[in-house]
DNA sequence: AGTGATTGTCATCTAAGATGACAATAAGCT
DNA sequence: AGCTTATTGTCATCTTAGATGACAATCACT
């Protein structure tokens, strides 16, 4: 296992979890985006499709909240996915302001491929450590995510901070 | 400890290390930038000062390599820090193309304050887990960072990918 | 009916990253 | 010495991503 004191790595910040998380997080997001690009998708698209596969018919606001992004951003995501015919905006049965977002048939196909990409990405990222350590790492990260109050979120940057619901000035 | 299977969190991606890293990494970087803002610094400035405090007189290219950023970006970092009188460009003793970057007296003062900010940030980020887990988490992250070939890096986004030295086309 | 919040949308502003070009200088080869 | 190639710092530009504010339509509450 690596030297925790980190003076050995030569980098003055390599011993800080905050720094390592920033680095690895940026790398992970960047790398995942690159892997997803051939499918014509960005991480946000993937996240949205994943959320929809768990429950269709939600409003854009609800989806945005669940993903931890601003509803303004959701408009673009839905636009792009709708243009590709992967989802559709239907009339919301209970609220005429809102749209009910639904998956189309072709979406499941693409989602499957994207999930395989995500699995590959995950596997390569964790290739260096053993099974037990993976499990423990994920548990630790989940714990941190909960404690910091991070929303479910998507890969893209945080809107402003955790708990951003509708909007949120500093 | 959190549920590793993650089906319980409600988020379809909460069980993936890649996703958690992206989320937490973005949060950490964002939060750190916000804490650093009152000092008039960005994470890159902090990283540069930290690197310089370990060895002055290096060329911009060398510093950029060590930090994992492109030399074009380094120009801006050095410009801003030089304008504030924290560092200075001297003539490189061995290469007339290059500059030798040195810290000024006022820099140490600010660096100290920035380090305290970084310590606070680190402490709050890890507030949810115990001492042993922190140590283990950092070790795991360091291992991942080494395995993925990440350079020393700074908080800002990766230039293109790990191993970016001078430049690097896809 | 009226008041204030919420939803989806659009326009805009800013910051960040990537890319390509360039002069000055270095390093190596013949 | 001369020639060629690589490197350093710099600048300009292009593309994104993110944040912010505004707005009409609709809802919820009184």
Question: Topology, please?
Answer:
Two copies of one chain form a homodimer.
Chain A lengths: L16 H20 L6 H12 L5 H8 L3 H13 L3 E5 L7 E5 L1 H21 L5 H17 L23
Antiparallel strand pairs in A: 1-2
Chain A binds a DNA duplex (30 and 30 nucleotides) through helix 4.
* Main sheet: strand order of chain A: 1-2
pLDDT averaged over residues of chain A: 83
Query: Total number of β-strand segments of chain A?
Result: 2
First and last CA, distance of chain A: 40 Å
- Name the structural class of chain A: mainly alpha
Tell me which protein chains meet in the greatest interface and how many residues each side has.
A-B, 70 and 70 residues
Main sheet summary of chain A? 2 strands, antiparallel
What can you tell me about this protein's structure?
The structure is a homodimer of 170-residue chains. Chain A is mostly helical and 170 residues long. The first copy, chain A, has one domain (19-147): Arc Repressor Mutant, subunit A, CATH 1.10.10. Helices cover 54% and strands 6% of the residues of chain A. Chain A has helices at residues 17-36, 43-54, 60-67, 71-83, 105-125, 131-147, and strands at 87-91, 99-103. A two-stranded antiparallel ribbon of chain A has the order 1-2. The N and C termini of chain A lie far apart (40 Å). Mean pLDDT of chain A is 83; it is low at 1-8 and 153-170. At the A-B interface, helix 1, helix 2, helix 5 and helix 6 of A face helix 1, helix 2, helix 5 and helix 6 of B. Chain A binds a DNA duplex (30 and 30 nucleotides) through residues 59-61, 70-75, 78, 92, 95-99, 156-160, 166-167, 169.
């Amino acid at each position: 296992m690596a030297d925790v004191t980190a003076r050995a790595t030569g980098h003055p910040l390599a011993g800080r979890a905050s720094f390592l998380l920033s680095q690895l997080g940026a790398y992970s997001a960047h790398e995942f985006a690159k892997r997803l690009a051939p499918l014509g998708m960005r991480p946000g698209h993937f996240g949205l499709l994943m959320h929809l596969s768990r429950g269709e018919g939600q409003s854009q606001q609800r989806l945005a909240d669940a993903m931890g992004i601003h509803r303004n951003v959701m408009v673009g995501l839905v636009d792009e996915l709708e243009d590709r015919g992967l989802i559709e905006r239907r009339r919301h049965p209970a609220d005429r302001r809102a749209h009910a977002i639904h998956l189309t048939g072709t979406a499941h196909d693409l989602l499957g491929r994207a999930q395989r990409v995500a699995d590959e990405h995950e596997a390569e990222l964790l290739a260096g450590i053993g099974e037990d350590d993976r499990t423990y790492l994920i548990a630790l990260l989940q714990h941190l995510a909960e404690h910091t109050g991070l929303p479910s979120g998507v890969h893209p940057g945080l809107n402003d901070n955790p708990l951003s619901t509708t909007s949120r000035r500093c």
